[in-house]
């Protein structure tokens, strides 16, 4: 019986987080009651799972970052050449980021758990960029921290580029990954 309750609680939490992401993306000031309604649950159930709005936002952040790490791991970045790994990671990350636009666009202070997850994400990114540098995709003198920041900016810009709402090909994670990686490695200059 306890197992069934646990599964039910997990489904409730997942429903709340998914509803919160959608509702808050439309109205960042939405109430817990609006989120509960969108999740098909009572406000009491939402408050049972999350004591307050801040707890819900922290859970959103942790969930989104865990999914980012899973997306990175699913790309198996250490088992392919750096260019292939960079492309796979980028496509996977873009898919997750498109599902968590509200949460991942928030510049709020993170809990210790979220901060640790973010540090892991950054470490994976820098490790992959260091491999790209060792394999000759990036110049030996490239500042990897700067390149990481540029890469993150390109990810955000790819998701927010004009036409992504109407044109399904503009939302395709593979097409966007190609755009991001091509821009990261070649900029606007000619390709050799």
Q: What is the element layout, followed by pairings?
A:
Layout: H1 2-26, H2 32-39, H3 43-49, H4 53-74, H5 82-99, H6 101-105, H7 112-134, H8 144-160, H9 168-171, H10 173-186
Outline the structure in words.
The protein has 10 helices and no strands. About 75% of the residues lie in helices and about 0% in strands. The protein is elongated. Keywords: DNA-binding, Transcription, Transcription regulation. This is TetR family transcriptional regulator. It comes from Rhodococcus opacus M213.
In short:
InterPro entries: Homeodomain-like_sf, HTH-type_TetR-like_transc_reg, HTH_TetR, Tet_transcr_reg_TetR-rel_C_sf. This protein has about 190 residues and is mainly alpha-helical. It is built from ten helices and no strands.
In CATH, what is the homologous superfamily of the largest domain? Tetracycline Repressor, domain 2
Q: Residue-averaged pLDDT, rounded?
A: 87
CATH C-level name of the largest domain: Mainly Alpha
CA distance, first residue to last residue: 64 Å
Class per helix and strand makeup: mainly alpha
Number of strands: 0
Largest sheet: none
- What is the CATH-assigned architecture of the largest domain? Orthogonal Bundle
Unreliable stretches: none
What would you call the shape?
Answer: elongated
Q: Beta-strand level of the residues, as a percent range? A: under 5%
Number of domains: 2
User: What is the CA-based Rg, rounded?
Assistant: 19 Å
The number of helical runs is 10
Helicity, as a percent range: over 70%
């Amino acid at each position: 019986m306890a197992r069934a309750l646990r599964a039910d609680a997990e489904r409730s939490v997942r429903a709340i987080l998914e509803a919160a992401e959608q509702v808050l993306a439309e109205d960042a000031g939405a109430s817990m009651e609006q989120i509960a309604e969108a999740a098909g649950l009572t406000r009491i159930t939402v408050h049972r799972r999350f004591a307050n709005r801040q707890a819900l936002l922290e859970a959103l952040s942790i969930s989104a970052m865990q999914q980012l790490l899973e997306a990175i791991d699913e790309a198996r970045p250490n088992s392919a050449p750096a260019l292939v790994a960079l492309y796979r990671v980028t496509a996977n990350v873009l898919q997750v980021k498109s599902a968590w636009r509200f949460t991942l666009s928030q510049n709020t202070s993170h809990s210790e758990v979220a901060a640790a997850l973010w540090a892991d994400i950054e470490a994976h990114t820098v490790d992959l960029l260091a491999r790209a540098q060792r394999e000759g995709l990036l110049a030996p003198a490239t500042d990897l921290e700067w390149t990481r920041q540029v890469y993150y900016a390109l990810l955000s810009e790819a998701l927010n580029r004009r036409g992504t709402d109407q044109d399904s090909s503009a939302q395709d994670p593979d097409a966007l990954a190609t755009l991001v990686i091509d821009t990261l490695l070649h900029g606007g200059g000619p390709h050799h």
